[in-house]
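Helix-turn-helix domain-containing protein structure dump, as promised
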Amino acid sequence: MAVNNNSGETPPPSLYPLRPYEEMAVLRQALSGVGTEQCFNSNEEIYAARENDKSLYLFTDGYFSFIRVSDGLVLSSARGEMIYGIAECMRPRGGWFLKIEEPCKARVVPVDQAFEIFTQQNLWQTVASLLTWFIQVYSVREEHLLGVTAYVMIRNKLLELNILTPELRSAINVTDYIQERTQLARSTIMAILSQLRRGEYIEIKRGKLISIKHLPKEY
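structure tokens r here:
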């Protein structure tokens, strides 16, 4: 098969809905006087709800991946400010965890204290707005991966990877990145990437994505 060069144009860089920074700032401010500051190292795994221990994690910066427990699938990755644990503490099911990708700090707040403050300060609408963003992100992710061809999956993950800074991309193997997020066979990924490179649609050096010139919608 060959890449169809007559299809539509590469979409704009904003693949996912804008993160609700204003809402996160409001919640961080409300919880600034409770909990403790903790440091986290790369590859640490955080479970917001474990038996009787439930906490929210308020990160001002960092790089994180959300991992499905059952098979290690990377559901999504995010860099920057993040509040983790609200949904998991409200309705625990243990289906996923947060993996720390680089050293960072967070304010860790016991969930009982956090929820009491949300009620006292009438912040549940703000919480709902934040949770809506998470739902939107995962809805877009499903659009990228369900009911589409292997090429479309790979195309979407290449565009997603291309949004990262060159410094971040320089530490990420493009084949690993796609496989961790799609669970496609490695041979399938490498075959499609090879055709895209031969057609000069993308530039990859030493396994790292350097640039995308154009990615047709169809294969």
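The two ends are 7 Å apart (CA to CA).
lmk if u need the other ones
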